[in-house]
């Protein structure tokens, strides 16, 4: 009998686990759970005899993969798979998948929660500003970007997108303006949302030069990954531009310094929670379980990333 392990430091909503169990057990497999583990040794022991693994942002490195001698498939229940050592998995013939689009609306909604918090001065009762009519730049027009554009249009914002998946024609079809590269996006948008993956091409690319280009009273929101922003540059920009504000669901390593030095101008969630809604958990968790069943039963490799 195939054993499917759900290993999550940050657990899914219990309803999501119920759905996942239904899918896995209906196929005649066993669902195992390892939630809120604090020690990597627990993960290494839990993967020892499982055939499939479902993770979230959990570190799935070569040590974990090597400890899993029966493992055939890892599904990252979510979009970004920078936590999985793809090369190590490929070397071992382990299929790696993600579940694109399943949690993206939750991340898009949180982006606007962070934005409203900043433009309304942390809800402290003083006069803030509105989102209405402001230019909203989306860096990375994927599943989250599309939800952001829909919500931003509801606020009557002027939406612009920059993405390798976008051109003039596709942007026009989506009803947004096209930015031909980050320079155009950053120099034109008063508010920017970062929605690009973290990989060797994107690490640290959001630098001082780009941030300094933003028009006056800019806000940068990062719900993607902390690695894409140059943290030293971010601190410098906050120092050099008194009008610059930053919100992130992926707090930087210098979080405490920034909070202390720039109160009211930076906001960070307590822990990464963009995808932390019941709906997103159910969507991504159920998709992960279904993809595993389809892989074992039909050899279906849709959403394979390696
Ligand atoms: C993703 O890549 O899907 C999001 O960043 C959500 O990550 P999480 O599952 O750790 O909340």
UniProtKB/TrEMBL annotation:
Query: Does the keyword Oxidoreductase belong to this entry?
Result: yes
Domain annotation D-isomer specific 2-hydroxyacid dehydrogenase NAD-binding: ranges = 124-254
User: Listed GO molecular functions?
Assistant: NAD binding; oxidoreductase activity, acting on the CH-OH group of donors, NAD or NADP as acceptor
Domain D-isomer specific 2-hydroxyacid dehydrogenase catalytic residue range list: 11-306
Ordered alphabetically, the record's keywords are:
Oxidoreductase
What SUPFAM superfamilies does this protein's entry cite? Formate/glycerate dehydrogenase catalytic domain-like, NAD(P)-binding Rossmann-fold domains
Q: Which superkingdom heads the taxonomic lineage of this protein's source?
A: Bacteria
Q: Does the keyword Oxidoreductase apply?
A: yes
Name the protein family: Belongs to the D-isomer specific 2-hydroxyacid dehydrogenase family.
Q: What is this protein called?
A: D-3-phosphoglycerate dehydrogenase
Q: What is the lineage of its organism?
A: Bacteria, Pseudomonadati, Bacteroidota, Bacteroidia, Marinilabiliales
